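Supplementary Methods, section 5.1.

A reviewer requested that the exact input to the structure prediction be made available. We therefore reproduce it here, unchanged from the version used in the analyses.
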Amino acid sequence: MNNPGPTVAEAIRAAAAQLVQVSDTARLDAELLMAHALGVTRSELLLRHTSDPAPPNFATLIERRLAHEPVAYILGEQEFHGLAFAVTPAVLIPRADSEATLEAALEAAPDARRVLDCGTGSGALLLAFLSERPAATGIGIDRSPAALAIAAANAARHGLSARAQMREADWDTPGWAADMGQFDLVISNPPYVEITAEIAPQVRDHEPAGALFAGPEGLDAYRILIPQLPDLLATGGIAVLEIGASQAEAVISIAQYHGFTCDLRRDLGGRPRALILRLGLGKGARSG
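The structure derived from this sequence is encoded token-by-token as follows.
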């Protein structure tokens, strides 16, 4: 009698036991990869397919995950703010922590009509904001043409191409914003990881280094971008910047030097995650 091979449920259990060495969410990873292999949603998998024969391509997906490749890159997409975004190794994977940055922007600039997303990557922050504010339009800039292609595809996917323009630009380059005008909201999740930081292999070896690392303190991008914000913001405009969990004091100091008052927002884990910047102090002034 031929061995029929493992069922879907058996293959998931075996894969989860392997994946504990590389993932804190081994069972979830296994279920998501099995659903991908079957071409169904995770809910459909769990409701209808657990007794089916395991598909042969599932083993290959598990091998990729065991090599620390992120699940999102294997699946080709990641959910953010209830929207599915295409992702490739050309862009950072949108993270739940960045929901705090989005929520800060929605709260602080509810009536924003023109939005600029600096370092747009997959377009997740800009497109999620526009999905919540139908009167707004936006520009997403990135220095990576490959990232911009992903962002443009995500805009089309969510019916936002008419309101979201993706442009190649680098805020390190003088004059990059000369023809863009001013914005009611500037939002950014810039690179902010220290170049010597110890980070997980699935991030270090797979996500784009140029979108992660920003000098020995992780502050280089803030030092370049924040001084440019006064010229980018319309009267009463607001900037919302994502920050690393230990960077609030340093980034606030940079922002205050350039005339901004700052409000801090924390992520769901209670860690500092976003700063809301408003022009209020004269450049070089010190509060208190």
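Residues 281-288 have pLDDT under 50 and may be disordered. These observations are discussed further in the main text.
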